[in-house]
Amino acid sequence: MDHVAIDGREYEFEDAGQVWLASWVPPGGSVPEGTHHGSGAVCRTNDDQIVLISQDGLSWDHPAGRPENHEDWRETLDREVLEEACAVVESAELLGFVKGRCVQGKEANLVLVRALWSANIRLQEWRPQSSRGVSQSSFRTESDIQSMACRIA
């Protein structure tokens, strides 16, 4: 498998016993067809730190999530970054979309589309909010917030 996705090329992967085809769609054209599955971002602070989030302190990821109500891509990004990283998005550049198509399994024929962003953020006081049934206690504590930001090399 290539290390860099080629625009529009589908790559097969398995998740939860299902087979999916995922493709990268750059910005500038039309939004790929499928269910709006949210936004995620590589979030950079003004002192060049990348913010990562964790619910268990073992697995780390970038802030991301699904839309609520009728949010657009950017509204979802702003809310998820605030909820998960206690940060405000000051500016964001759309990098593109990931389109996932289930080809085998219980969700066969489902097509999900997620927007990916590069965001400049401003960290707020550490007060994580509950989201979709995740308790606040499952987020990192205030004393651990420094471990959530990794210096860019």
Q: What distinguishing features does this structure have?
A:
153 residues, mainly beta, 8% helix, globular, disordered C terminus
What does this structure look like?
- By secondary structure, the protein is mainly beta.
- It has one domain (10-151): Nucleoside Triphosphate Pyrophosphohydrolase.
- Helices cover 8% and strands 41% of the residues.
- The protein has one helix and eight strands; from the N terminus they run βββββαβββ.
- Strands 1, 2, 3, 4, 5, 6, 7 and 8 form an eight-stranded mixed β-sheet that branches.
- β1 and β2 form a beta hairpin.
- The radius of gyration is 16 Å and the shape is globular.
- The two termini are 26 Å apart.
- Mean pLDDT is 84; it is low at 130-153.
Write a brief structural summary.
The protein has 153 residues and is mainly beta. The chain contains one helix and eight strands, in the order βββββαβββ.
Number of helices: 1
Query: Mind telling me the CATH superfamily name?
Result: Nucleoside Triphosphate Pyrophosphohydrolase
Largest sheet: 8 strands, mixed
Kindly estimate the percentage of residues that lie in beta strands according to DSSP.
Answer: 35-45%
Count the E strands: 8
End-to-end gap = 26 Å
The H/E string reads EEEEEHEEE
Helix content: under 10%
Identify the CATH class. Answer: Alpha Beta
Spans of at least 5 consecutive residues with low confidence: 130-153
Round the Cα radius of gyration to an integer and report it. 16 Å
The total tally of domains equals 1
Give the overall shape, derived from the CA principal axes. Answer: globular
Per CATH, the architecture is Alpha-Beta Complex
What does the average pLDDT come to? 84
